[in-house]
Every structure is written in structure tokens, then in C-alpha cells.
Write a structure and sequence with these properties.
2 domains, Fructose-1,6-Bisphosphatase, Chain A, domain 1, single chain, alpha+beta, binds calcium ion, D-Maltodextrin-Binding Protein, domain 2, 260 residues, binds D-MYO-inositol-1-phosphate
């Protein structure tokens, strides 16, 4: 595992934020709602401040796109895309499926990605052209060729109250074909799970760049395929995303498209 300066600092920042998450995991937290069911806690904010401090010192001149600070924009060639805590609803309910997601985009291309899940003791990482890793072990997508032996993961946006029946309809179409469907609650880990062959597919709508950026590189470097629902490249900013082991991509696209 050959780590460049960008990934080294991203790993340092993710681990520092991960410590904050871990240290607060069973403590009472302050919760504020950004929408009816869309929470942010004081721990998300503290994790974000910690990450930004480390990245800003290491890379003055880079820009930042981060979930809990809407004033940030990608305004330079190098832009860090950050989710200080992915899985906040899990965190609030003390379900340990939470992570820190940090990606570096250079001129529109993701070149480094880290997904650090402190409660699972798993750190997924990738650099463009350098393979994908969990801790220091190489990972690959699953070789499964059939839907009926495949595990699919999905998630629902915070706007789900207004579209629950449509999402349930799409999920029903997939459920009829696969071995099982899971809703785990952290899009970045969901992507890492497809990358490491634990699941064969993950789809979701209305994800944000900080949910997808790091995991998308990890998935690609592990041999997987990621597109939007029309099979195109607009999966980071476009609002629909399908990630698979590659072999099942076309079949999954058909299932998702057939239910829209
Ligand atoms: C959420 C998680 C969840 C997904 C939501 C995301 P957050 O991110 O990734 O799995 O279904 O769409 O918004 O709010 O925990 O950072
Ligand atoms: Ca998120
Ligand atoms: Ca978040």
C-alpha cells in the first residue's frame, strides 16, 4: 500500500475525526434538525472542524465542500469533499455503522478517497490507479454473476416521507430478483461494502457529493462500476447512483429503470 501525501493527510484527518466519534459514541449528544428527519449533532460539527483544521494547514490554497458548512464551494483545482460523519441517524441511535468520508477531487476527478469507520475498526482507502484497501489489505468486488445469489443495499433520502411508496416500489422490484436487500444507513460504508465484495450492489437517490465521492473511488479501484440511473457519469452531483460489482450493473440498471 503506497500512500501519497494527499491520502496520508486524509487518513490522519479521518482518524482524528473518528476518535471524536468514538469518544462520544455512548455520551448524550446535542441534536439539531436541518429538516423534519435530517439531524446534525455537536459531534458532526466537532469532527468537521477537526478535519478542516488538519487539511487547511497541510494544503493552503485547496478548497472544501463539506456537509455542515454551506459557505464552502469547490473553487480551486484541488477540492476536498468531506462528510464528517456519515450515518448520523445511526450515531444518534447508537448503531455503530458510522464513518468519516474524505475525498480529494482534482479538476473534476476524484484522486484520493478515505472511508474510516471507527466503531467497525475499518479504514477503506484508495488512490487513482493504486487499488483499493481496507486497513492494509487489498480489496476487490465480488465475482458473483447472478442476482439471485446477490445482496443489494439501498438507502432513502431525508425527503422520503413524500416519496415512500415510489421508493418501496423500486425496492420491491429488486427484492423479487436478489437474495436480499439491506438498508444500513451510511452511504459511504455501503459503497465500501460493495467494493470489498460483502454486497454486490448499492443504489440510492438524492445522495450528496460528500456521501459518494470517497466511496466511488474505492469502489472503482476495487474493480466495481458506478453510474447514475441512466448509466452515465453524473453520479456524484446528479442525484441518482448505482454501484455494483460490474457484472450485475446492466441487470440492476434495468430493475431501477423499470420502476421509475
Ligand atoms: C445519510 C446516510 C444514509 C443515506 C442518506 C444520507 P448522513 O448521510 O448516508 O445512509 O441514506 O441519504 O444523507 O446524513 O448520515 O451524513
Ligand atoms: Ca452523509
Ligand atoms: Ca453527514
Amino acid at each position: 500500500m503506497n500512500v501519497n501525501k494527499y491520502t496520508a493527510v486524509a487518513l490522519k484527518a479521518a482518524c482524528a475525526a473518528g476518535e471524536i466519534i468514538k469518544n462520544n459514541f455512548n455520551s448524550p449528544v446535542e441534536i439539531r434538525f436541518k429538516g423534519e428527519i435530517d439531524p446534525v449533532t455537536n459531534v458532526d460539527i466537532k469532527a468537521q472542524e477537526t478535519i478542516l483544521k488538519i487539511l487547511e494547514v497541510a494544503f493552503p490554497g485547496h478548497s472544501f465542500l463539506t456537509e455542515e458548512d454551506s459557505s464552502h464551494r469547490c473553487s480551486s483545482d484541488y477540492c476536498w469533499i468531506i462528510d464528517p460523519m456519515d450515518g448520523t441517524v445511526n450515531f444518534i441511535h447508537r448503531i455503530p455503522y458510522v464513518c468519516v468520508s474524505i475525498a480529494l477531487m482534482h479538476k473534476g476527478k476524484i484522486i484520493s478517497g478515505v472511508v474510516h469507520a471507527p466503531m467497525l475498526c475499518e479504514t477503506y482507502s484508495a488512490q487513482a490507479g493504486g487499488g483499493a484497501w481496507v486497513n492494509k489489505k487489498r480489496i476487490h468486488v465480488s465475482p458473483e454473476r447472478t442476482l439471485v445469489r446477490s445482496l443489494a443495499i439501498t438507502g432513502f433520502p431525508y425527503s422520503v416521507h413524500a416519496s415512500a411508496k415510489r421508493h418501496a416500489g423500486i425496492m420491491a422490484g429488486v427484492l423479487e430478483k436478489v437474495q436480499g436487500v439491506r438498508r444500513l444507513g451510511s452511504a459511504a460504508i455501503d459503497l465500501a461494502y460493495v467494493a470489498s465484495g460483502k454486497a454486490e450492489a448499492f443504489w440510492e437517490e438524492e445522495l450528496k457529493p460528500w456521501d459518494v465521492a470517497a466511496g466511488s473511488l474505492i469502489l472503482k479501484e476495487a474493480g466495481g462500476k458506478i453510474t447514475d440511473f441512466s448509466g452515465g457519469k453524473n453520479f456524484i452531483f446528479g442525484g441518482t447512483m448505482l454501484a455494483t460489482n460490474g457484472i450485475l450493473h446492466r441487470s440492476m440498471l434495468e430493475l431501477l429503470g423499470g420502476n421509475k
